[in-house]
Amino acid sequence: MDDSFVVSPDWLAAHLEDAAVRVVDVRDAWEYDGIGHVPGAVNVPFDSYRDETDVDRGTLPGADAFADLLSDAGISPEDTVVAYDDTHGVFAARFVLTALEYGHDDVRLLDGDFSAWNRDHETTSDVPDVQSTGYEADPLERDDSPLVGLEAVENALERDAVFVDTREQDEFEEAHLPGAVRFDWREVVDDETRRLKPADELEALLAEHAITPDREIVLYCNTARRISHTYVVLRALGYETVAFYEGSLTEWLANDGEVVTGSSE
């Protein structure tokens, strides 16, 4: 597993004193304050970096708005950022994807979540003092971004791309893109440890669904939250040709895109 995308709790514990490593807790403020958090972590709640108005590239918050969040959190562009939540990493993965899209070079997902961290490492209720950094985002050029839109998805349907639907079975049966395979994002998580399954087990599991590194892969769900987790996992496993359909099924249906009902499994 590539630790430039995903880091273990032990890795984070060993780097907490490193001034260049900044930890971001994306849970709600009441959880961050009332339950406790990783020492030194700042709180950037999930709702604060998700735009529901569809003004700026789907549900992304916009480069300036995101830069303001990171600036207020005391984060600089050169920092190594590690994000976590308490929901197996799905909300934190959305933060990772957003930061990457807006040009932050080094942002990683904590393998597991707060509950996994809390099993072996200390927590605190102390809120760190931070100074605003004047962060400036540097969004990826369209050709460098994994995000794809409606036209690119339509074109990919004409090729041998693997469309991966990361939703639950009932959602998939109600409507999915033609030829899509269903791969519930939670399949990569070990329910007992709350961490990712071993890399070799993940690779075998993905291969069973024809999700292999040699294929062009297009991820979608409903509103691009769940695919964020799958995207980070695939990149950590070395997958390179992974497209991220930001509009997902919500945009597809709004534009009368063709869908299939029932199970293909």
Automatic annotation (TrEMBL):
Domain of life assignment: Archaea
Pfam families on file: Rhodanese
Key words, A-Z: Repeat, Transferase
GO molecular function annotation: thiosulfate-cyanide sulfurtransferase activity
Domain (Rhodanese) ranges: 17-126, 157-261
Protein name: Sulfurtransferase
Organism listed in the record: Natronolimnobius baerhuensis
